[in-house]
Design goal:
This protein is of the alpha/beta class.
Length: 183
């Protein structure tokens, strides 16, 4: 696994030693970042969150492309250590925060994120409760973009979220969401 673009382009990231984490493929990551850049015009100065972070590849890619800060959330200590190791290797330790906790139990935050990546384990029904936590705990503002990776046959339907775009890559579906404005 490697960083695709930006200041750390081509740099390798450490991967988990076992198959407990399903990394997002380079092809899918490249497509995701292209979709986000087309919508937001780039990553300069953005705050991002990488939920179910695994190795941290999505958040670290955003930092490489100019994001100012990334928060990583994972319930597995080994994944949290891996994110810290990768950030240290890239010289990004000062730009990150790592939270070792379930995504369904997020803390409230004072400053919302511009982009949130959600890449839960497949088949665990974690997307809906995680999306609810993002709203309840202030992780997303009105203009936030949430990128959700699910199996190809899993669709997201939640009245609190507007689907901006979906795309399918092999067995993976990417869904871009924004919060629905409150009346």
């Amino acid at each position: 696994m490697r960083i695709i673009a930006g200041q750390w382009r081509g740099r390798k990231l450490a991967s988990p030693p076992d198959e407990s984490v399903r990394p997002t493929s380079d092809r899918v990551r490249e497509a995701v970042f292209s979709m986000i850049s087309a919508r937001l015009g780039g990553f300069a100065g953005l705050r991002v969150a990488d939920i179910f972070s695994g190795s941290g590849a999505l958040g670290l890619e955003a930092l490489s492309r100019g994001a100012s800060h990334a928060t990583f959330v994972d319930s597995a200590r080994t994944s949290c250590r891996l994110v810290e190791q990768n950030a240290t290797t890239l010289g990004a330790k000062a730009q990150i925060q790592v939270l070792n906790r379930p995504a369904t139990n997020l803390p409230s935050v004072a400053d919302s994120y511009d982009v949130v990546f959600i890449d839960p384990p497949y088949g665990k029904d974690l997307v809906a409760p995680t999306l609810a936590q993002l709203l309840q705990q202030g992780w997303v503002g009105a203009d936030a973009l949430v990128v959700v990776e699910t199996p190809r046959d899993e669709e997201i339907s939640d009245p609190a979220w507007e689907i901006v775009r979906t795309a399918t890559y092999g067995i993976t579906r990417i869904t871009l969401l924004t919060p629905v404005a409150s009346a």
